[in-house]
Amino acid sequence: MSVPMISTRKTSLALALLAVLHGGAAWATSADAPAPAAVTPAAMTGAAESDGTKTLEAVSVIGQGESRQVQRITVQDVKLLPPGSSPLKVLAKLPGVHFESADSFGNYEWSTRISLRGFNQTRLGFTLDGIPLGDMSYGNNNGLHISRALIAENLGGAELAAGIGALGTASTGNLGGTVQFYSADPSSTYGVTLAQSAGSDSALRTYARLDTGDHNGFAMYLSGAYADSDKWKGNGPQKQQQFNGKAVYDFGDNHVAAMLNTSSRNETDYQDLSLDMQKRLGWNWDNYAPDWQRAVNAAKGIFTGGVNNKDDAYYAGRGLRDDSLASLFGDFGLAEGVRLKATGYYHSNRGQGHWFTPYQTSFAGTPQETPIAIRTTEYGIDRWGTIASLGWDLGNHHLEGGFWYENSHHTVQRNFYFIAGPVDDQYFLHNPSIRKFYQRYETETHQLYLQDTISLLDGRLHLDVGVKSPQTRTRTHAVVGSYANGELTADKSLLPQLGASYKLDGQNELFASYAQNIAAFQAGISGPFATTQAAFDVIRGKLRPEESRTVEAGVRHAEELFEGSLALYDVKFDHRLLAIQQCSSGIQGCPSAYANVGSVTSRGAELTFILKPTSELRWYNALSYNRSRYDSDYLNGATVVATRGKTVVDSPKQLFSSEIAWTPGAWDLRLSANYTGKRYYTYVNDASVPSYWLFNAAAAYDFGKLGVAEDLKLALNVTNLAGKHYYGTIGSNGFTAADPTGEYATLQVGAPRAAMLTATVRF
């Protein structure tokens, strides 16, 4: 077979785009430099699945045709939750997904947690239009949370691979699966959309979007959102301002897109609870603010109202995050069956976590002496990267190869600011009174991949054969303090990924996959560098990157009335690294010991079945069973921690979700039920939180064209419909070996019933 001649014009355009991407990368390393533009294309398929947006309405929700266990959500799935809810909360309905948060929107980042098949989010991969979001943890060192990266209304869809992510996914931590989010493309018609929401806890949210419509292949939207609400318990606001802009240009068989997103977030913390605290102080116990005198008394050891120690409550806590994310994407048809896709991106982040600590006196020995200071953890991220892939259809083969390069600079500081009384800390603090430590990290990531998808038996059998080669090198420099200087590299020459899907007939198919992965060593205060130089020098030659081996297989069925899938999996997680805390409380922030504590074995099953008896009625169900257990004991100093055979922390064995959607005429009515099984927060399983059910509901009515408005819709969303008291997040302050008296404060209770009414008008 001869290779078609590639046109000089298209090749020049492709090379020009790559030059722009690399050129933008050069100046993007400066924190003060302007950010390059960004975004991605539509209807993308292939091994990488990491270079652009998708139109997910047109693809199978249960992953029909995939050799991996893949589930998808669309914009229809978002309707059940209040506007502005985190896309992660939408994913909670999918099999294998365990999601928790302490607020009704799922946006409070200190409490937000997601896990897949026993792997917590630090060992998962997350992307937006192919751009890596890191592990989306609170102290993220190499990314940002999806709730800051994208306005919720601009979500085009998401794809979940619960065990084996697409080979080219840009992630250094996806041991246990990936979540790929896609932004919505601009509308082809001109229009203005305005939405105003009001609800429980003085919640107000405004969303506005302007679409230019299509002009000879060019389309763009500009959008903004402002949200403000009180905490559902205690005192303090939760605020966020966001801007999203996206432009696309289609010419011939080519697509170029650019995106610029910004976010400014201010969230007031909820008090972390222990089992003992909840029993003594109740479900609604929170920090002291605005009662300054009670906080001062407690810092002095004068306790009232059931409080018996300094850690029962603090005056207040806060998280501040400012982010800018930009990208430029191109998808070029170089010749018949040959496509080049490339993305360049830049991300800047500044963040602070505030805590009014009773463990540091302000202005000691002066008339201004106060037994409380503000302790901060201060973050900075400046990173840029390039992702590219080349696909070639050659007979019954689809060949694809690509690379990902990222350079990330991360800083973290621990500072104290002296105060003489209660202060409003809703701003970034500067000029600390004490600087405890200041650490700089530089992380450079290279990843190559190559995959061949082979179509056999008249398209009934598809085989995926591929490998990737990741390398992540992290260097650290201690500017202030006693944390370690050094370097660690996580790399692997070849990590295989194999898969097959076979169509038994027009409705049924079998699939199976195998993959190996490694994770990079974490930078920041949760990684192996966050210890003394002496301790790091001892462990640096002994540490191996965490690894996983995943096998999964299943069957799918799809017809007009019914869709369903069943997947079985077996996962081995080796060289598990654990930061062993040397303090009695996670919030005190002293150095940890970092150690390899053995392996984990996970086995389970995931069942999805969707009934569609009429075009107006859809009933979705997902049932998951997961058994994740530690394979060995580990040593904490000279003490043996007996974890062999114990269930992995925050890993419920049973998950169930059910959602019914009825759309008669102008109405849209939805009801969901979610069950989460018992969870342990100690490694020896001596302390746990019970199982619970949660119900949500939504009702909307579309008035259609009304006066000058092209469309008017009213919607009511209610979360935790039954007003259930339950423990949501566990491990907010990390996990501990044992807690026989229930005094470890690492729990967050879930939000009570909340309602939100929204009016949306389009002109």
Automatic annotation (TrEMBL):
<keyword id="KW-0732">Signal</keyword>
<keyword id="KW-0408">Iron</keyword>
<keyword id="KW-1134">Transmembrane beta strand</keyword>
<keyword id="KW-0472">Membrane</keyword>
<keyword id="KW-0675">Receptor</keyword>
<dbReference type="InterPro" id="IPR000531">
    <property type="entry name" value="Beta-barrel_TonB"/>
</dbReference>
<dbReference type="InterPro" id="IPR036942">
    <property type="entry name" value="Beta-barrel_TonB_sf"/>
</dbReference>
<feature type="domain" description="TonB-dependent receptor plug">
    <location>
        <begin position="68"/>
        <end position="147"/>
    </location>
</feature>
<feature type="short sequence motif" description="TonB C-terminal box">
    <location>
        <begin position="746"/>
        <end position="763"/>
    </location>
</feature>
<keyword id="KW-0410">Iron transport</keyword>
<dbReference type="InterPro" id="IPR037066">
    <property type="entry name" value="Plug_dom_sf"/>
</dbReference>
<keyword id="KW-0406">Ion transport</keyword>
<keyword id="KW-0798">TonB box</keyword>
<feature type="signal peptide">
    <location>
        <begin position="1"/>
        <end position="28"/>
    </location>
</feature>
<dbReference type="GO" id="GO:0015344">
    <property type="term" value="F:siderophore uptake transmembrane transporter activity"/>
</dbReference>
<dbReference type="GO" id="GO:0009279">
    <property type="term" value="C:cell outer membrane"/>
</dbReference>
<dbReference type="Pfam" id="PF07715">
    <property type="entry name" value="Plug"/>
</dbReference>
<dbReference type="Pfam" id="PF00593">
    <property type="entry name" value="TonB_dep_Rec_b-barrel"/>
</dbReference>
<dbReference type="InterPro" id="IPR039426">
    <property type="entry name" value="TonB-dep_rcpt-like"/>
</dbReference>
<feature type="domain" description="TonB-dependent receptor-like beta-barrel">
    <location>
        <begin position="271"/>
        <end position="721"/>
    </location>
</feature>
<keyword id="KW-0998">Cell outer membrane</keyword>
<protein>
    <submittedName>
        <fullName>TonB-dependent receptor</fullName>
    </submittedName>
</protein>
<comment type="similarity">
    <text>Belongs to the TonB-dependent receptor family.</text>
</comment>
<keyword id="KW-0813">Transport</keyword>
<keyword id="KW-0812">Transmembrane</keyword>
<dbReference type="InterPro" id="IPR010917">
    <property type="entry name" value="TonB_rcpt_CS"/>
</dbReference>
<dbReference type="InterPro" id="IPR012910">
    <property type="entry name" value="Plug_dom"/>
</dbReference>
